[in-house]
Amino acid sequence: MTPIAWVGDQPVLLSEVDSAEAELRSGRAATTLPAQGSSEARQLRRWLVQRLTAERIVGLVRPREEATPPELAKIAADRAAMLELGSVAASLLTRSPQARAVFNEVTEEITVTECEARRYFEANFELFSAPERRVVRHRVLTSPELADLSDSPLRTVVRGQLAGPVEQALFAAPERSVVGPVRDPLGWHTLFVERAYPESRGTFAEAREQITARLLAAARRRAFGDWLDARRAELVRLEPGYEHPGDPRQPDNTHRH
């Protein structure tokens, strides 16, 4: 019954850290974990203490009874979003439906203004545009004969991807037409244009809903991280040897500036 951390008046016991580590070492990630007793293994145990204290913190919150925990994908839809959360919060939200319910409750008042969404659109307009492109069958021969394209796979060519006379001829051709043979340093090119797509530029009105959802999800992740950090600073006390993995005062921290 050795406490190695406190969340308010609630102890986190050494046996809990042992159990959490044993669970990891019996799981799919076992072969990727550091050897027991090493500096890296001690850092892993410090990280587990961070996760266990975070679990205690969200356990102190009683979400509304009618609250339904969101699916993890609603909070973090991809790996980049999970990395944005940080490893402790990401693990917490992955493992705990209660943590996801708390996430909803502590971030429900976060909003994104139209001005913020418009600034994002103007700074990232290329995400909502598509360059001019052609869907083609393409073959290169060493002699100026019309190539058989029947067994050539379809590929998409974006303007600027080719060069010189081949690109000029391709992007001047209409759909369902043959281009070539056209010569360049690689040989004689024959292409069949299946589809031709002009350059398109999305409007803010078209992109507003998507942008707002993206910015709102990111803002809620940041707000949850800030809330968790504030509650940790207020409630958590760590015993010597179980400091934060990044604490420069503990001997196993190898991060240096």
Please give a structural write-up.
The chain has 257 residues and is α+β, with helices and mostly antiparallel strands. 45% of the residues lie in helices and 19% in strands. It has nine helices and nine strands. The strands form three sheets. It has a four-stranded antiparallel sheet, covered by helices on one side. A three-stranded antiparallel sheet has the order 2-1-9. A two-stranded antiparallel sheet has the order 3-8. Strand 6 and strand 7 form a beta hairpin. Helix 2 packs across helix 5 and helix 5 crosses helix 6. The longest helix is centred in the C-terminal third of the chain and has 32 residues. It is elongated. 21% of the residues are buried. The model has no long low-confidence stretch (mean pLDDT 91).
Q: Can you give me a brief rundown of this structure?
A:
This protein has 257 residues and is α+β, with helices and mostly antiparallel strands. It contains nine helices and nine strands.
